[in-house]
């Protein structure tokens, strides 16, 4: 017997993700991988979470294992609201939706805000997972000109912004570049978006992982009534729980809740209660600094290794937080081809092209520094630097 | 500052769910609620899950808290494949996708199979959560004629089936009716769907909760190569974990995986490992019979109470498994209006109309019997029966 499966147009347009294929390669233990987007498991507070789990299963086992409200576990929503207030963006708990990882927030925003052909403004480059998630709803991406500091707000003309369903921004230590948007640009961005009537979506998984420079106010704190904000416990606690949150104004908030109900009814009660139990007494205030210290050290190892091993023709970002460095090689170098050669030598990174919604720059690549030991960073960058030099020499010969 | 939020067409079409509003009312402790779709928390194996959680956090804490593959935790996928084989439907673990509750499976099927206006075949009535989930992708539902035994396969004409993207069926103890499709109809259904080239989606959260009658082969076991199957741990273990699975053939399987990656990257590693640890040594073989016993007893309490308190003009299903009884009142009785009166007397149920994709039957209602103690079933049915009698008397007077 046979069924004729007819895929939807959006499913036909789906292609297997570069990240997925790369992650498969990097599972081989001999590979030094700068390709991952994984936080360091050394930062997972296992003992604390074991205690929290124990307490949840002792004090409220039936509620923790039962269906729960779509909006999320009330004490956790209240915790998020308080945290946001501390960060300068006071919001009501009633505007906080707990989601199954902030990736789900992206899916829900795409569902509720994007029709086929809708204009969506994104950075150049932007987070690949967001581009993939929004793509399912068939938008037309408009790329905002960006430089090493983020969106070039001077280049945001009324024509570019006009009619966009939303603007998707990662102001803090963006994946993939690690860049942080300066304060003046934040203000300009919020003003220009408001003037054009374009909702601002601020995706902020790395905001608290700042190891250099000073804290900058988030877009939501510059625009508390109308901003849309996405946060995550993946980078400050553990990603295997899939727990994040979205803050949104009405009428969007109610639609997000309804879309979430259709998507998975609610985020697992069990993990919401465990996370709340873990963090409710201020645990993150002592825990996050230890992550910052580790990631700051790791970042400097890699920046030092880049200086030593990469040729002067290469440029890279110098992040003050987060997990990633972005490298731009001379025009003509194709990092997808470079990756094939790197993997032969058991080194991996992510080619930059998929992070561009339009006009991919094939000469860019993303490096993650958080999970690789210092000596492997050194060994891996040495190999990669030599490959880059050989590529550039090849270009010069061909010219 | 102001943002002009323009909702997508699909979000504009979203309305707040009847179930959601009803669940709010039933939170009041004085309400005897037959409205819930919740399994009985008395069946949650808390002690066993505490041990499993402990073991997971002792043996593999970092893997349990880290990102994982989109397809799911391999040992759990293998467990599902073995379980399916036991139930007569051998499938490869490579065709099993672990999802964040089977509700997510519905969302992913909608995403990958439904374009605006696509024909989707559903039962009359069908599961409300599925109708809502598919609706986001703007299908055109075609209702299959159904009776107290389920889909009337004689009424499935080639015209009705032609061009449908899929047929959505709940053959075992369907939500909302509790009915089970007889074997001959299962065979006819699979044959007719195959002849028309229509993929069959079998949603089976209640299949193992059979307390009367004999086990019937599932649609997948009648059509192992091409069938699409959805299973859940919500009703046999605990729903608060949000854990289910989808079995699908290629090329659909790969598209489901890609859509899931965009939706939430993967199902929480933590809960997948806990559930696998809980069930891997045959736990469900002793646990499920205890749920069957409880639900069977509860079902009979309610059937007895219906006999005693409901008027002869009312009809109801006599389930051999699952959690629900479906009541059909004389034409002219509007159960939404009845619900308002019932809630004044602190009794709740779910009006039947929202379960119909087309031509809602306002004289129907759904009763859940699993969480209400016997004496409250008696008291609640007495009140509800009196209200029903009064409604019918009112109809007769008006006529």
Automatic annotation (TrEMBL), chains A, B:
Family annotation (InterPro entries): Aminotransferase_I/II_large (IPR004839), Class-I_PLP-dep_aminotransf (IPR050859), PyrdxlP-dep_Trfase (IPR015424), PyrdxlP-dep_Trfase_major (IPR015421), PyrdxlP-dep_Trfase_small (IPR015422)
List membrane-spanning regions.
Answer: none
The organism's superkingdom is given as Bacteria
Say if the entry is tagged with keyword Transferase.
Answer: yes
All residue ranges annotated as the Aminotransferase class I/classII large domain in the record: 43-383
Does the entry feature the keyword Iron, yes or no? no
Which Pfam family name is an example for this entry? Aminotran_1_2
Q: Which UniProt keywords apply?
A: Aminotransferase, Pyridoxal phosphate, Transferase
A single GO BP annotation from the record?
A: alpha-amino acid metabolic process
Entry's Gene Ontology molecular function annotations: pyridoxal phosphate binding; transaminase activity
User: Cofactors per UniProt?
Assistant: pyridoxal 5'-phosphate
Whom does it interact with, and what assembly results? Homodimer.
* PANTHER family assigned to the protein according to its UniProt record, in alphabetical order: AMINOTRANSFERASE, KYNURENINE_ALPHA-AMINOADIPATE AMINOTRANSFERASE, MITOCHONDRIAL
Q: Which family does it belong to?
A: Belongs to the class-I pyridoxal-phosphate-dependent aminotransferase family.
Under what name is this protein listed?
PLP-dependent aminotransferase family protein
Species of origin: Pseudoxanthomonas helianthi
- The organism's lineage? Bacteria, Pseudomonadati, Pseudomonadota, Gammaproteobacteria, Lysobacterales
